Amino acid sequence: MNKVRAAITAVGSYVPDFVLSNQVLETMVDTNDEWITSRTGIKERRILKEPGAGTSFMAIKAAKDLLNKRKLDPAEIDIVILATATPDLQVAATAVYVATQIGAVNAFAYDLQAACSGFLFGMSTASAYITSGRYKKILLIGADKMSSIIDYTDRTTCIIFGDGAGAVLFEANEEGNGLIDEHLRSDGQGREYLKIAAGGSTKPATIETVQNKEHFVYQDGKTVFKFAVTNMSDVCVKIMTKNNLTSADVNFLVPHQANKRIVDATASRMEIEESKVLMNIERYGNTTSATLPLLLSDFEHKFKKGDNLIFAAFGGGFTWGSIYLKWAYNS
Ligand code: UT7
Fold first, then answer.
1. CA 235, CA 248: separation in Å to the nearest integer?
2. How many domains does the chain have?
3. Which atom of ligand 1 is nearest to the CA of 256?
4. CATH number for the domain that contains residue 295
5. How far apart are CA 36 and CA 218, in angstroms?
């Protein structure tokens, strides 16, 4: 009998209807479609416009999409983990509200925050719960309403981010499929380069912090870019080497969608051909915790049972890592 592994057995997603194109951004800040496309690969992003709707709105929709597709009774779910950098509220985990709204009445729920690596780290957490044997069904959601923390007069950040949500179900697998290996890292020196300075416990919100726009995302793009390119490639090559995977053995690279140039550099270090590199940044921009599950949702139809997927992410903190997972079903 094979070892028990944690496999992804269902996928769901949601993106808001409102499209913010490069052409519209040209009317808001001093930028242009050519610059954005060549520097990032982004053409448009989705923005959640519903009044009063936060991250939970999208997380609930993504979770319900999964439940409907899989015809799963939400009462069977043991744990709901929501990876997010933009919770509905500072206190009271958004995952708890989401779990209740979708009818996961027997689950406990909590949020997980690791910026753009939140979903990747959540995969590790979900896998550990499954392989412990204590829980059978874990719903892992990645959702972010980035538009709630972006300054739409700052051209260095507003062109990058978008809103969205994706969800996956983890269950035990004894056929040899599921999460095989992981290489996760973090470095606290990174927090100076990508952060929201105010509104936390070191600098609670005041009239001044709001006037200074310190509750918006600040990013030193150049520095983050350099760390992202080096570190994301390193962990991908490491996980391939450790698991004796050649580029021919890898069926798909599932990379965090922060910048097409970061993904291209990673794929090139791994010597992976373009057709195996999943990309949807052109349509959604960087949705932080949602990029990986949105890729799974968009490309689920391409995956076959036993396919080798390498997940990779890099984000604020800094946080980064790679995960090797064997896909568990044909859709
Ligand atoms: O997911 C979390 C992790 N985040 C990331 O991985 C993001 C990493 N960083 C990046 O993706 C890139 O650094 C950016 C896309 C943010 C910026 O691209 P870049 O090639 O690093 O541009 P830059 O910051 O070096 O700026 C180049 C020039 C500057 O002008 P000068 O000084 O050369 O005259 C900027 O002022 O481009 C200018 N610029 C813009 N021009 C038009 C900056 N933003 C814009 C803009 N439109 N939106």
1. 18
2. 2
3. 1
4. 3.40.47.10
5. 18
| pLDDT tens readout for residues 34-71 | 999 999 999 999 999 999 999 999 999 999 999 999 99
Pocket test for ligand 1, best of 31, 39, 261, 264 (most atoms within 8 A of CB): 39
Task: Specify whether 164 is located in the same domain as 230.
Answer: no
Q: Which residues pair with 79 in a beta bridge?
A: 108, 138
What positions carry a catalytic annotation? 116, 256, 286
Helices 94-102 and 55-70 pack at an angle, to 10 degrees, of: 40
Prediction pTM value: 0.97
Q: Around 111, how many Cα atoms within 13 Å sit in the side-chain half-sphere?
A: 24
* Ligand 1 pocket: which of 191, 222, 226, 320 to mutate (most atoms within 8 A of CB): 222
Give me the domain span that covers residue 292: 179-326
Quickly state the pLDDT bin for 1 (edges 50, 70, 90): low
